[in-house]
Structure formats: C-alpha cells, structure tokens
C-alpha cells in the first residue's frame, strides 16, 4: 500500500522555485532514500511534505488523504513526523523533558512510547536526567530521533541524520533506523551518506536541481555509474545492465 504519495510537487521560496515538479512514493513498511547534492531540494521536499512549507502546486497524499493543505501539527497527528536537519533539541531541558515534549500531540505521555524509545536508545535512558545540551553530537541526534518517535509515527522523515557524526556513530544511527523500520515504522531517509543509505534503503530516488533524475532499488542504484561518480566518490567502471531507471528530462 502506498503510504506517502507525492505528485508534481512545485515549491518556491518567493520567486525562486526549489522543486520543479517532484513525484515519488513510499510504500508502507519501506525504507526509501532520497539522495542528492547540497542544494538539490531534499530539505525543501521534506518540509513541504510535513506541512512546514506550502507547495505552489502538486499534491501530497498520506494514507490516501490530501495533506498538502493541512497545518503541520495536524499532519503530525495523522502519523507523519519529521526529524529536522541539525537536530533542534532543547539544550536547556533534560533528555526526559525533550522526550515528553515530543509527545505533545497526545494529552498524556504514553508510558509505552517512552519505554520503546529507551529500549531503542539505551544511552538516552542512562542520561535521562541530564541537560540535552551536554550530550555528544551522536547522542543529540539520537534524542532528536527518539523525540520524533514519541508521536509513534507511521512515517518518519529523517533529514541527514548522520551529518557531522563519526563513522562509528553513523553505523549506530543507521542500525537504529533499520530497527525502527523492523518494528513497523516506514522511513523516508534524506542522506548525503549515499553509500550507507543505499545499503539500508529498499528503494531510492536521486534529486538534482529540484527534479528526480533517477530511481530504483537501493542495491541497483548503488551499482549505477552516474550515482557512483556523483555520490559514492568512485570512478566509472564497466558494468552490465543497470536496474535503475533513468527519468527523461522534464520538458
Ligand atoms: N529559506 C530559503 N530561502 C530561499 N531559498 C532557499 C531557502 N531554503 C533553501 N533554499 C534554496 O532552495 C534550494 C534547495 O535547498 P534545500 O532544500 O535546502 O536543499 P538540500 O536539502 O538538498 O541541500 C537551494 O537552491 C537553496 O538555496
Ligand atoms: Mg538539506
């Protein structure tokens, strides 16, 4: 079943268009990666989906319903939550307070939601009374993800969760994303770390200058020459048939 459907999305900042008709979908249960260079429009796409930006045209459907005209807080209530780029935790509040704020959409903080995030992130459980600003970068990213999970979303949007983290922490974050997905949460993952993202994602899309230019199964995109050259930092090498489908340039 299609959980998220994005069609012909056009989003602009004033007179400058950042997305020029973007279409893609995420099926229930999938991890889908959205790749692209800096400035390609990844964050704009996520912010439009979660209701923080209004599209100029096109539509976003979540579980079949149009959400592109709804306010962000209603979209969260429907089960779609975004972890923004750059963490955005409350540094002068404790870990525990940050998590309770994450559940603001519900009148009472559900005990199971807290138990679940502490099971996923044992380090946060150990530090639940500590001010969030005193956590390491990796722990702050975990807290941002944990806080988003407090809403018990059906779809989690992650904007560059591995940004600025040491390799060992990157592995840990990706491992946790896989676990979150196994427990039933669908994931749309924006990443610069294409190598790891493509290993994790069932399918992926490549965004270039506000347009989707490539799509395919993660494993096949990882073998695609254009992707390898642009995002995986590897030179071209001869290859057989590619599974990834190139989209014709938009008119
Ligand atoms: N607040 C903003 N005001 C004006 N232009 C913006 C704003 N945010 C992003 N842009 C522009 O929109 C384009 C896409 O940016 P963004 O979605 O942040 O890309 P990405 O997340 O892929 O790096 C870029 O050209 C960027 O300069
Ligand atoms: Mg971005």
TrEMBL record:
<dbReference type="InterPro" id="IPR027417">
    <property type="entry name" value="P-loop_NTPase"/>
</dbReference>
<dbReference type="Pfam" id="PF00005">
    <property type="entry name" value="ABC_tran"/>
</dbReference>
<dbReference type="InterPro" id="IPR003593">
    <property type="entry name" value="AAA+_ATPase"/>
</dbReference>
<dbReference type="GO" id="GO:0005524">
    <property type="term" value="F:ATP binding"/>
</dbReference>
<keyword id="KW-0547">Nucleotide-binding</keyword>
<dbReference type="InterPro" id="IPR030660">
    <property type="entry name" value="ABC_branched_ATPase_LivF/BraG"/>
</dbReference>
<comment type="similarity">
    <text>Belongs to the ABC transporter superfamily.</text>
</comment>
<dbReference type="GO" id="GO:0015658">
    <property type="term" value="F:branched-chain amino acid transmembrane transporter activity"/>
</dbReference>
<dbReference type="InterPro" id="IPR052156">
    <property type="entry name" value="BCAA_Transport_ATP-bd_LivF"/>
</dbReference>
<keyword id="KW-0067">ATP-binding</keyword>
<protein>
    <submittedName>
        <fullName>ABC transporter ATP-binding protein</fullName>
    </submittedName>
</protein>
<feature type="domain" description="ABC transporter">
    <location>
        <begin position="4"/>
        <end position="234"/>
    </location>
</feature>
<keyword id="KW-0813">Transport</keyword>
<dbReference type="GO" id="GO:0016887">
    <property type="term" value="F:ATP hydrolysis activity"/>
</dbReference>
<dbReference type="InterPro" id="IPR003439">
    <property type="entry name" value="ABC_transporter-like_ATP-bd"/>
</dbReference>
<keyword id="KW-0029">Amino-acid transport</keyword>
<dbReference type="GO" id="GO:0015807">
    <property type="term" value="P:L-amino acid transport"/>
</dbReference>
<dbReference type="InterPro" id="IPR017871">
    <property type="entry name" value="ABC_transporter-like_CS"/>
</dbReference>
């Amino acid at each position: 079943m299609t959980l998220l459907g994005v069609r012909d999305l056009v989003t602009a900042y004033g007179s400058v268009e950042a997305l020029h008709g973007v279409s893609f979908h995420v099926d229930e249960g999938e991890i889908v990666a959205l790749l692209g260079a800096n400035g390609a429009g990844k964050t704009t796409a996520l912010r439009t989906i979660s209701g923080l930006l209004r599209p100029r045209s096109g539509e976003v459907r979540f579980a079949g319903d149009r959400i592109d005209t709804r306010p962000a807080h209603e979209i969260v209530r429907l089960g779609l939550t975004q972890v923004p780029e750059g963490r955005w935790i409350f540094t002068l509040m404790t870990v525990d307070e940050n998590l309770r704020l994450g559940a603001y959409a519900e009148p009472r903080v559900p005990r199971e939601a807290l138990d679940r995030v502490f099971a996923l992130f044992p380090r946060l459980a150990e530090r639940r009374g500590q001010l969030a600003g005193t956590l390491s970068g990796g722990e702050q990213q975990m807290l941002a993800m944990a806080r988003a999970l407090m809403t018990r979303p059906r779809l989690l949007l992650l904007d560059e969760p591995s940004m600025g983290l040491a390799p060992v922490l990157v592995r840990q974050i990706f491992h946790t994303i896989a676990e979150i997905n196994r427990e039933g949460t669908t994931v749309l993952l924006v990443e610069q770390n294409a190598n790891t993202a493509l290993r994790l994602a069932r399918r992926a899309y490549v965004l270039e200058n506000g347009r989707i230019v490539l799509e395919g199964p993660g494993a096949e995109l990882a073998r695609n020459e254009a992707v390898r050259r642009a995002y995986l930092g590897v030179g071209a090498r001869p290859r057989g048939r590619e599974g990834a489908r190139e989209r014709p340039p938009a008119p």
